[in-house]
Known about the structure:
Layout lengths: L2 E10 L5 H9 L5 E11 L2 E11 L3 H13 L3 E11 L1
Antiparallel strand pairs: 1-3, 1-4, 2-3
Amino acid sequence: MGKTLIVFKIYPEAPEAVGKVEKAVRALKGVELRDMKREPIAFGLELIKAAFTIPEKQDNTLEELEKKLKSLEGVNNVEVEMMTLL
């Protein structure tokens, strides 16, 4: 069975919340974080791009992961940027 790579754009509520959101993403249990980086948006605002791998055949895992990310303290919005099979 293969894996699916999913890249999320995570938008913090405020510029000072970026570090706290990064720590919370790294602390998520039950998911495999592959990569994470900050990306500037405008005027000192940054978003976080986080790449995760999940098992290919578990469709509900994507929705569960998105809900976990949206429920983190300091997160304003979450978008799926890209998804591909590995």
